[in-house]
Amino acid sequence: MATAGPDRPSLDVRILGPVRLLVDGIPIVLSGAKPRALLAILVVNRRQGVPKTALIDAIWGDDPTPRAMDGLYAYVSNLRTVLRGAGIPDRDVLRTVDAGYLLDITDDQCDVGRFEAARTRGAAAARAGDSRTAAACFAEALGQWGGTPVTGLHELGFAANFATDMTERRHHVLVDRIAADIADGRASAVTGELTALTAERTVDERVWRLRARALYASGRQADALNAFRELRRNLVEELGADPQPETAELEEAIRNHRLPPESPSARGATTRDVPSIRRRAWLCVGDGDRIPVPPSGLRIGREPDNDIVLDDARVSRKHARILHRDDGIFVRDRDSANGVYVNEVPIRADTPLTDGDVIRVGSTRLRYGASEETAPPS
Predict the structure, then answer these.
(1) How far apart are CA 360 and CA 25, in angstroms?
(2) Is the predicted pLDDT of residue 372 greater than 50, yes or no?
(3) What are 304-318's pLDDT values in tens digits?
(4) How would DSSP label each residue in 82-135?
(5) Phi, psi of 352 (to 5 degrees)
(6) What confidence category does residue 371 fall into, taking pLDDT thresholds of 50, 70 and 90?
(7) The FHA domain covers which part of the protein (predicted)?
(8) Tell me, what DSSP letter sits at residue 271?
(9) In this predicted model, which residue has the larger pLDDT, 150 or 273?
(10) Within 201-343, where are the H helices?
């Protein structure tokens, strides 16, 4: 693996914002959207070979030109020239493997890797009850962001999906950082931040619960109870739903001045450190093999950039998504033409899944399964 040595320049690739390549902290120009897209795809899949056909599909979309393969070779050659010109051993970093290419960099050499590493440390500290360290680690993770991920490339399907997924992960880390701050006695300092966040996330119950906790801890019980009333109104108007039991229990505890402490596991529940049931979740298409549900979820549709590609005329190009949330695994309709059904009931909002549920998209049925046999994360 290529790393910086005493006489080797340091390499840093950033995709949590505009795609940038820096050598010894100095930006190196990468002109054109397709070269930046190539670098972004390789960073997302760092230390894993990416087939040339997958790169072409991602960079050129559904209608690649007849000379797309020649274009790919040119972009790879140009990227190697840029690396070599900056003193980076290009053949060590950008390797040809099997039928594709591999970017051999460490997590420390890219912002997305540093984000994940800091987030993981924060989750571990939160589980251990070390709220101050957790908050610092989550803040470090958030500090890796420089804007909207892969800015300027969102017309490409892979880039739009990556930006959506990473933005959701960033939200979870932000909420985890706020929860750690509250647990560490800084409730008053985050009430304004939570007010702004609940204005954006009008039915995100975890965020509203944190807002109520922060208000109550700041001696503002009436404001905390008003927050619950506002949340109830939002849930009815937007989802036609009642609050989750956890929300109702917290409201009752605050009303009666019996607020329980937030548990370390709740403070540290992020998109990657999810309960064991989530890590053991899967989908089966028909009688096919199990497809594990990763922490980033699964995209379902007809386009090749989906995680589950269905050759079904009644399936939209971007049809459905399986996603992790604070309170379980849910299925979302991505504005499909024919809708999403769970156990033959059409869904109108993000819908929680339980073991044995059958999801229908178009004419295709997918069975959801989950195992609770493993111990909690350590």
Answers:
(1) 50
(2) no
(3) 888 899 988 889 989
(4) HHHHTT--HHHHEEEETTEEEE---GGGBHHHHHHHHHHHHHHHHHTT-HHHHH
(5) -70, 145
(6) low
(7) 298-347
(8) S
(9) 150
(10) 205-217, 221-239, 245-255, 264-267, 276-279
